[in-house]
Amino acid sequence: MTVDAMTRLPLLLSLLFLYLGTANEVNCYEEKRVLSLQTFQWKQQSGAPSCLSRKSRSENGVTILEMKHRDYCSGKIIDWNKKLQKRLILDDFHVQALQSRRKTKASAGVAEVSEAQIPLTSGIALETLNYIVTIELGGRNMPVIVDTGSDLTWVQCQPCKSCYNQKEPLFDSSTSPTYQSVFCNSSACETLHFASWNSGNCGSNQPTCNYVVNYGDGSYTRGELASEHLSLGTAAMNNFLFGCGRNNKGLFGGTSGLMGLGRSDLSVISQSSALFGGVFSYCLPSTDAGASGSLVMGGDSSVFRNSTPISYTKMVPNSQLSNFYFLNLTGISIGGVDVQAPNFGEDGILLDSGTVITRLAPSVYKAVKAEFLKQFSGFPPAPAFSILDTCFNLSGYEEVNIPNIKLQFEGNADLNVDVTGIFYFVKTDASQVCLALASLSYEDEIGIIGNYQQKNQRVIYDTKQSTLGFAGETCGST
Q1: How far is the C-alpha of 112 from the C-alpha of 118, rounded, in Å?
Q2: Which residues are the active-site residues?
Q3: Can you name the residues that pair with 403 across neighbouring β-strands?
């Protein structure tokens, strides 16, 4: 080796080590996936869509119900841009109502919360409740909205004083031999109070147990509590308590009502615990025409089609919203980089099928946004819209590489957000595409994991063991 070569060797080695170090650092940021912008195609369906599903089945002791996106039964959508934008605005109303309910419960005394006009369920703008399944009540098939933030299951009933338009005929209690009214002096009527702060509202000339459900956007359902024969696939339940709605108004689409999957004694999960052990799971489908997922009642994981192992975390109690599902968020990683924020693990975060966009504390969102922009750079910016403030103009691209987003929970459980749950398309031509995360207004508000980030995930709720599980799964009901 020449003297000149020996002189250059330290420099070459230094450059090599610098390269390797830089390469390792680059790899750290290279946890990315390809998003084809052609995936988001909002096409009209041919023919009149049906809300009903006939693909439900039983397997290995569990019941599997086909789950569809609510747009599937909304009829022809003329303006998809308007639809996508309206969904964000209503989602904000929903979250504001949820935060308001928590504050009301925290500040109210026992006497105040027992009033009949206190919302029975979650104070929700129901346009944002996106997923439907078909149940059989009193021998009639009815499509209903699925909501983990509600307890009472209800349908519109005939005769109806005031009903919104639905695609299927109204439930007619007079034609069902298994329909039974619930009376005011019954223990079943008392479940309204224990489930939702709302005691049965009984007038002097009303022997039946009346209910009132008011939602945050002005929607409501009012009627009487009743019992009926319920079938979920091939699994049957007698004396199922539900609301027979005689006066209903709101943004419920073409559905027949709502199915409550909350934690109180009045929910479907509690009432069916003898059949399914208090366990249910779902895989939420996309908005593609004909796309479907599944709601599985029961805990046999052999029917799942998960592509990653199930990881579990514990549910945590929340005294203000005891009927909801909370868990501890301990961290978030962007492209493999752990985000540094002060408030991880301090307060529980709500897992909600009724919220669309995930909401984070301002300090957490700020850190997540900064790291995302660091890794997803060089793309033209686009204006913010509604709750979304990190937006891009991707109309000139067929596909983009986007950083992985991973939500980390207590017990080393992870939710790897599907690639379709990272960006929200405000405009269908991709000229306004936004990071599908939003900031809360204040640090002390409740964080929420929305359904947009739950797409193509198997999410398992075990109410007996008080655990929640996550696994990647490409949704499909067949």
Answers
A1: 9
A2: 147, 352
A3: 32
**What's the chain's average pLDDT?**
81
Residues in Cβ contact with 77 at an 8 Å cutoff, skipping those fewer than 6 apart: 42, 44, 71, 83
Q: What is the pLDDT of residues 385-401, one digit of tens each?
A: 999 999 999 999 999 99
Write down the H helix ranges in 71-150: 80-107, 110-113
Residue 198 tokens read as 């709302």
Tokens 């301002």 — which residue?
362
- Backbone phi, then psi, for 407, in 5-degree steps? -95, 130
Nearest to 43 by CA among 288, 356, 275: 288
Kindly state the DSSP code that residue 45 receives in the 8-state scheme.
P
DSSP 2-18: -HHHHHHHHHHHHHHHH
The total of other beta-carbon atoms located within 10 Å of residue 320's CB is: 13
Q: SS3 sequence, 82-95?
A: HHHHHHHHHHHHHH
Cα of first residue to Cα of last residue in the chain, in angstroms, is 69
d(CA 308, CA 419): 15
pTM: 0.84
What is the 8-class DSSP label of residue 284?
B
Q: In order of start, what are the domains of the chain with their CATH numbers?
A: 57-296 (2.40.70.10), 304-472 (2.40.70.10)
Residue 61 has pLDDT above 70, yes or no: yes
